[in-house]
Amino acid sequence: MSRATVVAVSCETYEQNEVETAVNRGIELLGIAEKLKGRTFLVKPNCLSPKSPSSCVTTHPEIVRAVVRVLKNAHRHLMIGDQPGGGHGERAIEVSGMRRVAEEEGVTITTFEREGYKRVKLSSLLRDGYFAKTYLSADMVVSLPKLKTHSQTMFTGAVKNVFGAVPLKTRRLAHSLAQLLPRAIVDIYAFRPPDLNIMDAVWGMEGDGPSQGTPRHLGLILLSEDAVALDAVASHLIGIDPMDVQTTRIAHERGIGIGDLGEIDVVGEEIESYRRKFRPPKNFFMKNPKVFSWLLYSLSSVRPRLDKRNCHRCEDCVHICSMDAITMNPYPVIDYRKCIECFSCSEVCERDAIKPKRVLHIPILSKLVRV
Fold this sequence. Notes:
- With 371 residues, this protein is α/β, with parallel strands linked by helices.
- The protein has 15 helices and 16 strands.
């Protein structure tokens, strides 16, 4: 396999002119302008849930606007599309600012659910599944992931962004596979990889991502035709060894993309000056030689916990749970015997009523250690 190229362009803010200049420079450095001419495009942002741009849960709408403006000069047809989780499609498009951008730029925006899905053979692991018709019919898919940590996969970026192209039923099946989830994500990605990936790394998310972490400034936009290489560079930037990210490692080992930093050319900015150590999710311990960290990990677990003060009893968590571990009585009740700690309930909760919380299994440790 030939070497991969990742472009890193400085972009300190979401000010419209700065973002547009950065995206245009990135396209130029990547050298793909000719490939964009006369194509039909699907622009696929990360529109996980109904969160405002300032929360850093979703791709910032100004990134979407800048990409749309670049593609409008070359396209025959262009559409923005995604399928947020938990039945929040239309509301997520509204709250995230995506609809406003689409209307102002005169392009169509849709949910994959509205346009329908095509039955496909995904993999031996996922068996027959469904893929968004809009995604499959486009000449070029331009994926706009958001750089974030992730409570179940450690890191989420370009490879994981394709997960939004399959319906909730397939996502539930993938989550139910627990430790095999990264393999399922790569299976979905491999079925139809995006043609171009432009990552919003102006502000990312650390801690309990992908929805309840803390915004963290990085000041970059990253571009590549290889989503695996893009994820490798992005995870390196936030202090994670790319091969510790299972989706990157699995895709690299399968030859679907390049995850080895030694085989990736980074052009544009000198990325080492942008490196930051992002705080990991509570249920992930980065490589740490300290015995205490290992002991704490061994004697504890992270579970989704309900804060009734924020709960509006919408039942989104009940519907998203792949293991049917949540019932209403009258608030959500989590059966931890069934729970596989995938945190999908936390991801879709618009009110942040379900949050990851570390639980120590030996009571005396709870008094000795503040977590």
